[in-house]
Write a structure and sequence with these properties.
Shape: globular
Number of helices: 13
CATH architecture of the largest domain: 3-Layer(aba) Sandwich
CATH topology of the largest domain: D-Maltodextrin-Binding Protein, domain 2
Number of strands: 10
Low-confidence stretches: 1-6, 22-32
Strand content: 15-25%
Number of domains: 2
Order of helices and strands: HHEHEHEHHEHEHEHEHEEHHEH
């Protein structure tokens, strides 16, 4: 056998070697194209029933149908979304554990001095999904400081520094930081009252007995648009909300550049192969740009805003930088 190989034509040996290499490459390509070969888990770091949870369940159903493997949403709530995010950040980067979260993740990256995971090192962006505004509202029957317009709110706040109470869904929430950003931009002083969620904060606003203003999501505001108990003052994004087309933006009202949104995005752990990231991106982007999904989430005050993974990464850096500036200016600490 050794003797016969010695007399083999070098060209023949070269051809065999190339054939072997091609076979190995084809085998590797086949292994990658076989994804997924087992169920996919999408971690939602919040309680069931919210917009993030609904988005995750829609994506789960889509991936189950398109990829031939079951995909399930699993809620891991706690610590302003950090428990679920950390779980995914420490998972294997094989495409079988994903994270669907909201703007909280950028706020946490800006706030935490000693995080248990690092957003830009431990997670890989797949796509931004949807964005929406926060709505600045005030109680129509506030016992002391009623405001029927944004201008009136600003005038009252300037005349009574620190007297107007600002409700939020929690310290460090995007609604809270929207208020801090307005205080910085307009040189105001509010007294912050954090609650355990938006529902509790809105209950306070509706009573008219305590908080004078609240930055709430569209979903929380919508049920009260016609009951006469709140005044809709402004929206926090650069462009108006299709559901509240008559409501001006804070940017329009004298504070250009003011732009805060509630958003949702999909992530994978670090080291997830690019082929898997691109496959998931392609499936989810195609789905979210369908007419059916566009209509569903537009009706909830969200704008479908899908992206390439690298575009989502750039968006995240912009978000974290903005929150870092607000936190530094307001001297906020939450560790």
């Amino acid at each position: 056998m050794i003797s016969s190989m010695r007399h083999t034509n070098p060209h023949t040996l070269k051809t065999c070697a190339l054939t072997l290499i091609c076979g190995l490459l084809m085998s590797s390509s086949f292994a990658q194209s076989a994804y997924p070969s087992k169920p996919i888990k999408i971690i939602v770091p919040f309680t069931p029933g919210g917009v993030t949870d609904i988005l995750a369940r829609d994506i789960s159903q889509r991936l189950s149908t398109r990829l031939g493997q079951s995909a399930l949403a699993e809620n891991k709530a706690g610590a302003n979304g950090n428990i679920g995010a950390e779980m995914v950040a420490k998972s294997k980067g094989d495409g079988y554990t994903l994270l669907l979260t909201a703007a909280n993740i950028a706020i946490s990256a800006a706030l935490q001095k000693k995080p248990n995971y690092k957003l830009f090192e431990d997670l890989t962006p797949i796509t931004l999904l949807a964005k929406g505004p926060y709505i600045l509202v005030s109680p129509a029957n506030h016992a002391i400081y009623p405001s029927t317009s944004f201008q009136e709110l600003i005038q009252t706040a300037k005349a009574h520094p620190g007297k107007l109470s600002m409700a939020s869904s929690g310290a460090g929430s995007a609604g809270h930081l929207s208020g801090e950003l307005l205080q910085n931009a307009a040189n105001l002083k509010f007294t912050h009252i954090p609650y355990k969620g938006q529902t509790e904060a809105m209950t306070d606003i509706l009573s008219g007995q305590a908080s004078a203003l609240f930055f709430a999501t569209v979903a929380v505001v919508t049920p009260h648009l016609t009951d006469g108990r709140i005044n809709i003052l402004a929206v926090t994004t650069k462009t108006r909300s299709p559901l509240l087309a008559q409501t001006p933006t804070i940017s329009e009202l004298g504070y250009p550049g003011f732009d805060v949104s509630t958003w949702h995005g999909l992530f994978a752990p670090k080291n997830t192969p690019k082929e898997i990231i691109d496959k998931l991106n392609s499936e989810v982007v195609l789905f979210f740009n369908s007419t059916e999904i566009q209509k569903k989430y537009t009706a909830q005050g969200l704008q479908i805003s899908t992206s390439r993974p690298e575009e989502f990464g750039e968006f995240l850096r912009t978000e974290v930088t903005q929150y870092e500036k607000v936190i530094k200016a307001a001297n906020l600490t939450f560790d």
